[in-house]
Specification:
Number of strands: 26
Structural class: alpha/beta
CATH superfamily of one domain: Valyl/Leucyl/Isoleucyl-tRNA synthetase, editing domain
Strand content: 15-25%
Radius of gyration: 32 Å
CATH topology of one domain: Isoleucyl-tRNA Synthetase, domain 2
Strand order of the largest sheet: 7-6-15-17
């Protein structure tokens, strides 16, 4: 038979993919249909502040594989797409843009800044959606959600109010992690620990020797703390006061006995700076001690530091040590003190603990309901070791600071009462002002507070009843605490049900040398560069084969190029099938030869194995088996065997076509574009019978 015009030319992904995607969209089959059991995935909302990166490419590929497979199995599938305003992350990106323009957010009118970031985000949102479509994502765009959608914000506000009503929300004047550069507080998860080797100072504090790595905080130290059972200090009594010479003159120190002191560390005596250290803050709280701020919000010393006031702490440190030395208060210095410091995860600035009134969620009551469900395996983690990781974190959780001092975010709906109400300083949760004189909280929500409600906020009306709880959450293992654990807690809290039954966690996508991608290294891989060179199908299957859940994947052009050759192989096989078996109708099964029966038995074994692996989320194994079958068995072996006999054997022609079409169906979730294109060329697009909605092969 004469070949169709398309098959006379090499396969061209650039010409094919956009057309095929439009065919899928126009079919309406991305939306849930049929009477099958629902199967739901909510796309992790992609940050609408830039381009897709290789990690996004992996997310879209794995989730699309899940959805396409379940759709072919007859499930009523919903893959709901979404984008995230991404709060602090997006504001940081925009601040860099402002810096390049010679501007700064500081001094800008908040409304102007907000409007600029909104325009920036909405433009990026359009770009991100276009890029997601290029990855072949078969999600229901009619249900697309944005974390700034009014109904999502309404849900977030309802959760905030419910937490307040249930006594799980409070506004506390507590230690928070503060970034002097970005001028906002963080939760514990947004802090990056950094190992450092720095000088450690031993100082004379009256009759005691104390030690510190931060002498710049010591101006406010007027309490000396020791363990009540420390025999070395039994002559000092609780509440006893001592006059002693300190950095800027004589002070009065008070003795405090507390069980938190480690008698084996240093001399067993310590001073505390309650405003700038969590452990010190807790000691001060227990004993009702005064707390005084020493370092301001910009990382500079306050007037309590005397002659050092106004100096940045990093610059003042050596000068303070010199003064202590000149007064005979420096005992000695350990120059090789190894310790861990906390830094901003975005800019690397040393985080300063500060006391600041913020909104906190009490986590323990939420955790206490969640832990038993995880322990009893009501939710499955892939890979399994993440179960222990989550349980360990939940068992040691602290209250969550959900306030952020940034413009770009969902405003916190809280108002402070004026004096004339008789409740001066009291707070009221309300979307609208309760009346004249009430002051709006200028802070915004931590973006993880809103995205932590994604599992139920993205599903509205009848969709909630039909598709919640969802089936699978697929995302990067590195955000298991930021997002997954919080979604589990908030989903269970709001609905009484776990928001999903399976968590599938992929690892990082690394560069070809196995290094983490970063802009500073210049090794960031844009997935669209690779799909443009080699086709989306080659990129997708290249991401999956050899990629076990939870492990990092080294991505190289050579690997993707190899699967471009595989796509060409499939295309050339289509030419052979069309040339030799176009007139063969699978519904008219002839009497088969024993060798052909054996070939079908081998295919049925493959179908059984692949189906099992797909059900167990072992996509890397399923894809590899399909790949080897098509190339090594069907192309290299069977087709070569068939070449001499096809003209005379109807059994051979029928079996060849059956093997090839079934292979296309098995391969479709991994390489959807080329398989759908060939399906149409073979004449199976009549009456809207797309490969995408064909029935998954049964053995």
């Amino acid at each position: 038979m004469e070949l169709p015009d398309k098959l006379t030319r090499p396969y061209n992904p650039g010409e094919t993919e956009g057309r095929i995607y439009s065919l899928w969209e126009e079919s309406g089959k991305f939306a849930p249909y049929g009477d099958g059991k629902p199967f739901t995935i909510l796309m992790p909302p992609t940050n609408a502040n830039g381009n897709l990166h290789a990690g996004h490419g992996l997310v879209m590929t794995i989730e699309d594989i899940m959805i396409r497979y379940k759709r072919m199995r007859g499930y009523k599938t919903l893959w709901l797409p979404g984008t995230d305003h991404a709060g602090f992350e997006t504001q940081v990106v925009y601040e860099k843009k402002l810096e390049k323009e010679g501007r700064s957010r500081f001094g800008m009118d908040p409304k102007v800044l907000y409007d600029e970031i909104m325009a920036f985000t909405l433009e990026n949102k359009k770009n991100i959606i276009a890029q997601i479509k290029k990855m072949g994502a078969s999600c229901d765009w009619s249900r697309e959600k944005f974390t700034f959608d009014p109904d999502v914000i309404k849900t977030v506000y309802a959760t905030f109010k419910k937490l307040s009503d249930d006594g799980l929300l409070y506004r506390g004047n507590r230690i928070v992690s503060w970034c002097p550069k970005h001028q906002t507080s963080f939760s514990d998860l947004e802090i990056k620990d950094e190992d450092r080797v720095e000088p450690y100072y031993y100082l004379k504090y009256g009759p005691f020797t104390i030690s510190t790595s931060r002498p710049e905080t010591k101006f406010g130290d007027k309490y000396v703390i020791m363990h009540p059972n420390d025999k070395r200090y039994e002559q000092y009594k609780q509440g006893q006061t001592l006059k002693l010479e300190w950095i800027n003159g004589e002070i009065e120190a008070t003795v405090i006995k507390d069980d938190a002191v480690d008698m084996t560390f240093g001399t067993g005596a310590m001073t505390i700076t309650p405003w700038h250290d969590q452990a010190d803050f807790e000691i001060a709280e227990r004993h009702g001690l005064e707390k005084e701020q020493v370092i301001d919000w910009h990382g500079k010393l306050l007037p309590i530091a005397g002659e050092f006031a106004g100096q940045k702490i990093t610059e003042a440190r050596t000068k303070i040590v010199e003064k202590l030395k000149s007064k005979g208060l420096l005992d000695h210095i350990d120059e090789n003190y190894k310790h861990t410091v906390k830094t901003c995860y975005k800019c690397g600035t040393l985080v300063e603990p500060q006391i600041k009134p913020q909104w906190f969620v009490k986590m323990k009551p939420l955790v206490d309901k969640l832990i038993p469900k995880i322990e009893s395996d009501e939710i499955k983690f892939i890979p399994e070791h993440y179960k222990k990781i989550v349980l360990h974190w939940l068992s040691n959780i602290t209250d969550w600071n959900i306030s952020r001092q940034i413009v770009w975010g969902i405003p916190i709906p809280a108002w402070q009462a004026p004096a004339q109400t008789g409740k001066e300083g009291a707070w009221k949760i309300s979307e609208e002002s309760p009346g004249d004189g009430w002051t709006k909280d200028p802070d915004t929500f931590d973006t993880w507070f809103s995205s932590g409600q994604w599992s139920f906020a993205a599903l509205q009306g009848k969709d909630f009843d039909t598709f919640y709880p969802t089936d699978v959450l697929e995302t990067a293992g590195e955000i298991i605490f930021f997002w997954i654990a919080r979604m589990l807690m908030l989903g269970l809290y709001r609905s009484g049900k776990l928001p999903f039954s399976t968590v599938y966690l992929h690892g990082l996508v690394l560069d070809a040398k196995g290094q983490k991608m970063s802009k500073s290294k210049g090794n960031v891989i844009n997935p669209l560069d690779l799909t443009g060179k080699f086709g989306t199908d080659a990129f997708r299957i290249g991401l999956v084969i050899g990629n076990t859940p939870g492990t990092s994947l080294a991505l190289s052009e050579d690997k993707i190029r190899a699967y471009k050759h595989f796509a060409n192989k499939i295309w050339n096989m289509a030419r052979f099938v069309v040339s030799n078996a176009t007139e063969t109708r699978l519904e008219n099964k002839p009497e088969l030869t024993e060798p052909d029966k054996h070939k079908l038995e081998e295919l049925n074994t493959l179908i059984t194995e692949v189906t099992k692996e797909m059900d167990e989320y072992k996509f890397y194994l399923a894809a590899e088996k399909i790949y080897h079958y098509i190339w090594r068995t069907l192309a290299d072996k069977y087709i070569e065997e068939y070449k001499p006999i096809l003209a005379t054997s109807e059994s051979a022609r029928w079996t060849l076509k059956e093997l090839y079409l079934t292979s296309l169906q098995l391969l479709h979730p991994f390489m959807p574009f080329i398989t759908e294109e060939i399906w149409g060329i073979l004449g199976y697009h009549k009456d809207g019978k797309l490969l995408m909605i064909s029935k998954w092969p049964a053995p």
